[in-house]
Amino acid sequence: MNAPPATPAAPAGSAALIALDGVRKCYNVGLPSEAEVLHGLDLQVQSGEFIALMGPSGSGKSTLLNILGLLEPMTAGRYVLQGEPVQGLDDAALTLRRRHTLGFVFQFHHLLPAFSALENVTLPALMGAGQVSAARRERARSLLDAVGLAAAMNKRPGELSGGMQQRVAIARALIMEPALVLADEPTGNLDTASSDEAFALLRRIHREHGTTFVVVTHDSRLAARCDRLVELVDGHIARDGPVGG
Question: SS3 of 148, please?
Answer without folding.
Answer: coil
